[in-house]
Structure to design on (1020 residues):
């Protein structure tokens, strides 16, 4: 168990979600086990363990831009008394619903009562304490649950803050204070990575070769910050079999977490395959007979997700239902580079509003198909003709463009906002 | 009250008397309904032998039943098992729970013993007993056909010949295609001469906050849509529970030849796809469920569930799909639990060395279900049969209840959960397959006991709650009590979080342990057959299936006892009972003075 705790502490740091050694994780079977031998937060966490039926608990202070956006959002949530952050991205909304905010500024510093109250409601919460944001999250099965929730909270807050800022700019509701805060936060953003990984060249003739390519591409997608570990999915078509990442697998640890799924459906061994298997299969089946795509890569690049949430139709009658009911053709386009990436609605999985109904038609159309598509508030799916090199390149290109386009729009609308004053 | 009606129907089959029991609202808040309420109503009678007229057979619904909370239309049955002597309970699908709730009843408590086969008919608040002598000896298909001639609507639960002729694992069949299968609940009905129960309700359950319930429902439905196990292309909705079959094969944990091996050659031709291709089943589900995991063949026969698919092939050396359909159909008609029936056949096969033909399988099942001819001796279940043959170690059971189709050598959490399960060899109380195989909510190492004691304890509490709310446990491959707590609060108006529900679940589980302790159950019963600790499974390249390490198992069980608040002998403590608000049975020793329990 100790090694498992150390693993997740290290992963949080590797993803730049926390400073090195910042996170404290504890797990309990019949005795408590800690990721660090001695830590001032232990008494607080011990009290939480004593008062909740849980098996793992994580408490950490997010780093960098995550810290900054979380402080802003937490302050707002406490100021407007909602005591909750509403995520805009699809997966967080599906799995975490909303993010409670706890005012940790009690007389005794961090008090357990508020945190316990929040954790009785949800899997994790944001704590604002002496001007700093902390996140705590629990698991009832494994420390991995706490790690996943922490990671999701960071992603959700990032998306929520930047999406809100663009919305304020677009609606002319920007304040000088907000603008100043945004400038500080923008300065914390890491530079866009320009180098490309040296991915294996396809096509791959054997299952072993395809698995190696999947593992490598999955790991690179996480390393390049295009998805947080645990989310996203990836697949490769090898004849009549789709090799696809398992549900709940980490793209940087695919190893044994790849399911071979026969396309004829003659085996249910893919029962543990990604929840987006149906969408992947439909994309492969929808291509021309010579095979439009052999590789599919799905990540959650932040600015692609954020830009998908930005819409000029502020009076749309379907506002609030965009993630599943939007029927306006939307896309991210860049005439200079020829980028043309549709944005489609769709929820996770195979329900009546599932992206399995919307994504494949957007990628496999009569004009020969697209390089990728963004699912509203969710993430980007990209295709590779023979391997993951082009799929990965598209993932990076789209995110690079979306990031630039985001700040272009903020500047444009912000300027207009200033002009209207 | 919202969610509950406060009305519990009591029927005494000895006298024909019936009355309405009204319990304090606090009882509902502390025990919810379903399994919790059933245990509450049983506990004063829990030591009575299964044939005793005063032993109640209880059917209870929960506060969510007959509301729009997803998968809430189930009914929970509770009594004492004639097969194991422990508390017997089973969750039944179909329409039974919904109709009972709509009829205005939170539970029905049947006591006494009728002088002749009797039917209990409930139409809202009209209750009558009928002479069912004309149904005696008929199989359940015939019983349903007769009853449906005059009762076209509503729900019907009926026993088959197995319940009447003394089979200790006789089931109750509900609405033709569903079953309260395990522990011999049907036999208790048979001992009471209760042939069938028919319920029709037209009322509506009162909901405190419908918009909040709709919001909770949306959250739950969104989660199920994201679940590959439930709604994915290979999942339960498309293939039924049989979709697990291929995974059990590839993970080398398919019980084969009475659990002597863990891989069955040719299993890939016996999977859910093969059944779907051959029998073209249609989807069917319990009332209030959108998953529709039940499948019905084009010829009208009920498709086998995963356990039946596995036990009627790998466990007994059969490769004929049609025999599985026929055996499943025969078990349903006779009113036999397919898991116990299949496992008892496998035990017989290993002890006698006999290789089965299809005809022989059906002949033995018929003997089990009718008490006549070859197989009649198997109606006592594998434990008693194996003991009678001087080979008790070949009954693959825990507490006398036969094990389902997950070999514990392939999932150590499952090994521990089999042992600690109150009703015996059952996979559903802690359902570790969820994380050890299906990766939900996250994957755990299936070959390790690390952390499993606490996981099992928490899962038992959660599932006790699920069986009391009521909801289907399959839903919890996707949703959690976090979402269902909101549904519960919306329905009842009672503020509650998942943590509150877990505490209730802990109380319900401990209540069952108190009853079992009074009936003599202890750590000696919380154990697995020796085979799993001494024989290797079917190892493959890169995938060794060693015996379960005995010392690690015992250490995990000891940890479980500490977490659960039991003594090292697996017995309840007065301190834990007090903490949970449970009365201490005077016949039990005090146990440990301190309460180390609580998760």
């Amino acid at each position: 168990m100790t090694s498992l705790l150390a693993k997740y502490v290290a992963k949080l740091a590797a993803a730049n979600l926390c400073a090195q050694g910042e996170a404290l994780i504890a797990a309990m079977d019949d005795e408590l086990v800690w990721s660090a031998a001695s830590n001032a937060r232990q008494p607080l966490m011990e009290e939480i363990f004593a008062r909740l039926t849980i098996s793992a608990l994580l408490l950490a202070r997010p780093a960098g831009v995550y810290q900054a956006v979380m402080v802003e959002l937490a302050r707002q949530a406490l100021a407007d008394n909602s005591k909750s952050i509403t995520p805009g991205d699809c997966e967080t909304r599906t799995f975490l619903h909303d993010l409670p905010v706890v005012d940790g500024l009690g007389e005794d510093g961090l008090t357990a009562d508020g945190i316990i109250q929040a954790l009785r409601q949800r899997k994790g919460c944001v704590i604002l304490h002496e001007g700093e944001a902390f996140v705590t999250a629990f698991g009832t099965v494994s420390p991995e649950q706490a790690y996943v929730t922490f990671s999701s909270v960071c992603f959700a807050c990032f998306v929520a803050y930047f999406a809100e800022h663009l919305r304020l700019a677009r609606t002319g509701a920007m304040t000088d204070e907000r603008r100043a805060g945004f400038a500080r936060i923008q300065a914390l953003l890491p530079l866009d990575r320009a180098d490309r990984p040296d991915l294996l060249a396809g096509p791959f003739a054997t299952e072993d070769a395809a698995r190696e390519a999947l593992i490598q591409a999955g790991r690179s997608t996480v390393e390049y910050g295009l998805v947080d570990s645990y989310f996203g999915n990836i697949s490769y078509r090898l004849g009549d079999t789709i090799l696809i990442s398992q549900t709940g697998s980490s793209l940087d640890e695919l190893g044994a977490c790849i399911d071979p799924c026969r396309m004829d459906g003659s085996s249910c061994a893919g029962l543990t395959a990604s929840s987006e298997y149906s969408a992947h299969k439909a994309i492969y089946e929808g291509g021309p007979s010579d095979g439009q795509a052999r590789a599919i890569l799905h990540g959650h690049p932040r600015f692609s997700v954020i830009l998908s949430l930005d819409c000029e139709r502020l009076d749309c009658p379907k506002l609030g239902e965009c993630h599943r009911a939007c029927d306006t053709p939307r896309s991210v386009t860049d005439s200079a580079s020829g980028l043309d990436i549709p944005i489609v609605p769709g929820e996770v999985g195979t329900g009546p509003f599932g992206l399995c109904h919307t994504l494949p038609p957007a990628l496999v159309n009569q004009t020969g198909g697209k390089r990728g598509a963004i699912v509203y508030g969710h993430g980007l799916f990209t295709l590779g003709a023979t391997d993951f090199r082009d799929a990965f390149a598209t993932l990076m290109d789209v995110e690079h463009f979306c990031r630039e386009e985001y700040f272009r729009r903020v500047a444009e609308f912000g300027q207009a906002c200033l002009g209207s004053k | 009250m919202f969610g509950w009606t406060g009305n519990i129907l009591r029927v005494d089959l000895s006298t024909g008397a019936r009355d309405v029991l009204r319990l304090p609202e606090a009882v509902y808040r502390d025990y919810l309904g379903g399994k919790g309420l059933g245990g509450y109503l049983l506990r004063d009678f829990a030591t009575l032998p299964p044939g005793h007229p005063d032993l109640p057979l209880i059917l209870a619904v929960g506060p969510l039943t007959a509301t729009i909370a997803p998968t809430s239309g189930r009914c929970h049955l509770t009594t004492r098992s004639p097969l194991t002597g422990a508390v017997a309970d089973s969750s039944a699908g179909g329409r039974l729970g919904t109709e009972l709730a709509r009829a205005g009843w939170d539970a029905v408590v049947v006591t006494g013993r009728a002088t002749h086969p009797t039917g209990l008919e409930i139409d809202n608040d009209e209750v009558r007993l009928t002479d069912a002598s004309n149904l005696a000896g008929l199989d359940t298909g015939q019983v349903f056909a007769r009853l449906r001639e005059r009762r076209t609507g509503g729900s019907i639960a009926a026993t088959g010949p197995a319940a009447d002729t003394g089979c200790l694992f006789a089931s109750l069949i509900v609405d033709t295609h569903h079953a309260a299968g395990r522990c011999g609940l049907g036999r208790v009905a048979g001992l009471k001469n209760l042939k069938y129960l028919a319920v029709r309700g037209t009322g509506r359950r009162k909901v405190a906050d419908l918009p909040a319930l709709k919001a909770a429902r949306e959250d739950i439905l969104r989660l199920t849509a994201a679940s590959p196990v439930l709604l994915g292309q290979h999942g339960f909705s498309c293939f039924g529970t049989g979709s697990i079959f291929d995974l059990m094969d590839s993970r080398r944990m398919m019980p084969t030849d009475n659990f002597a091996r863990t891989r069955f050659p040719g299993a890939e031709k016996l999977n859910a796809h093969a059944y779907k291709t051959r029998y073209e089943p249609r989807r069917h589900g319990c009332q209030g469920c959108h998953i529709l995991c039940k499948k019905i063949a084009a010829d009208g026969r009920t498709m086998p569930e995963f356990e039946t698919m596995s036990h009627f092939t790998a466990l007994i050396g059969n490769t004929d799909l049609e025999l599985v359909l026929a055996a499943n159909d025969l078990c349903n008609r006779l009113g036999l639990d397919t898991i116990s029936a299949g496992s008892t056949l496998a035990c017989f096969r290993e002890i006698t060395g006999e290789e089965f033909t299809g005809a022989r399988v059906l002949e033995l099942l018929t003997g089990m279900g009718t008490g006549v001819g070859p197989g009649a001796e198997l109606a006592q279940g594998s434990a008693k049969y194996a003991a009678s043959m001087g080979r008790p170690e070949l009954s693959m059971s825990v507490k006398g209840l036969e094990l389902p189709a997950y070999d514990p050598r392939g999932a150590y959490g499952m090994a521990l959960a089999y042992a600690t399960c109150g009703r015996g060899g059952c996979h559903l109380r802690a359902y570790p397959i969820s994380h050890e195989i299906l990766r939900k909510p996250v994957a755990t190492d299936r070959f390790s006991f690390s952390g499993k004691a606490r996981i099992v304890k928490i899962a038992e509490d959660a599932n006790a709650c699920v069986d009391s709310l009521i909801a289907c446990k399959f839903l919890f491959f996707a949703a959690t009590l976090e979402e269902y707590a909101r549904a519960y609060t919306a329905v009842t108006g009672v503020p509650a979080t998942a943590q509150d529900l877990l505490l209730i679940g802990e109380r319900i589980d401990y209540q069952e342990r108190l009853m079992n302790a009074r009936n003599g159950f202890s750590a000696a019963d919380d154990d697995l057959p020796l085979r799993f600790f001494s024989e290797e499974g079917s190892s493959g390249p890169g995938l060794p299936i060693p015996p379960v390490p005995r010392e690690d198992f015992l250490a995990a069980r000891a940890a479980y006892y500490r977490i659960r608040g039991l003594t090292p002998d697996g017995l309840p403590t007065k301190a834990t009972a007090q903490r949970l608000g449970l009365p201490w049975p005077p016949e039990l020793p005090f146990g440990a003075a301190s309460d180390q329990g609580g998760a």
User: Anything to note?
Assistant: Residues 592-599 of chain B have pLDDT under 50 and may be disordered. Chain B touches chain A through 60 residues (CB under 8 Å).
